[in-house]
Structure prediction request, 343 residues.
Amino acid sequence: MQTELHTPGALLSPDGRLAQVGWSRQPLLDCNLESARFYRWRALQRWRIKRWDYYGLTTPTDFYSFTIADIGYLGSVFAYRINFVTGAYHEVTLTIPLARGVILPRNSTEGESVYDNGKVRLLFRAEPQARSLSVNWPNFGGQDLRAEVTLHLPSAHESMVIVVPIAGHRFYDNRKVNCLPAEGWLELGGERTELRPAESLGNMDWGRGVWEYDSFWVWASASGFLPDGRRAGLNMGYGFGDTSAATEHALILNGRIHKLDQVDFAYDSTDFMRPWRMTSPDGRVDLEFVPFQERVAMTDFKLLFSEVHQIFGRYRGTVRADDGEGVRLDDLIGFAEEHHARW
Prediction:
């Protein structure tokens, strides 16, 4: 079921269909969204194309996240922080009509993602061996939030990239990267946290595509350390398109992707705080996810709607690597989320 891509080229063919479908360890395809063809009137297409750059930071005590997104008719810029010790959670979202002032690059390997309204400023920059994040958010829940962070991304560090079709000429082009050693600092309310690569890790979610109006997906992710010091991460998910050629399931060990096939999720959508189970028919995945914090984010403009239940918790169990090693995860902090959208 897993088709690995190796050949660079364009994402979309001249008729607007995906030129290749599958997964890869590095981004190979030029995201030529100008070739999209899913409406008779092409002027309408830009309102249905979704683009986002999302970054997360896992420190020994907190998870921080920063996002710049353009969903066509709206821009969404948000940040949140969750403390693992106290459970303290705060989030601020800016909704921007017509995504004015949102700048996102063509590809995940280049350029800058920027939003600056004269007060709030987020800048994500792609550098040759890193990603730099610069954040200045005054009055973030009554406290100023600032950050200057470098996420180390050497060329050998592998990504979980999938290119999959959705109904008709719709598609999803996604690059996720886990376990990026982080250094720099975060400052909230004048209290500064120094980030050290041996303690703090980042993850990136870069997405481009065209979804159906009614959409649903589940995403699970983690970035942390094993007792022996190796960096270990998870990326799993489903629901966002036709994954018959490739899923996004992977174990990440010291920057290398160990590709997983099918992973089945069992959870209670009426009570997300009950333990989740992730297992695979081939026996490579046997995990329990034990929640400790729920983040709920909702946007309701009637015709436009989004509801996210992002659950933070601890992964316990075993995932088998490509070489057969049974990698034991003991209380690896991460998250799992369910997302419904009409967009």
Summary: The first strand starts at residue 9 and ends at 10.
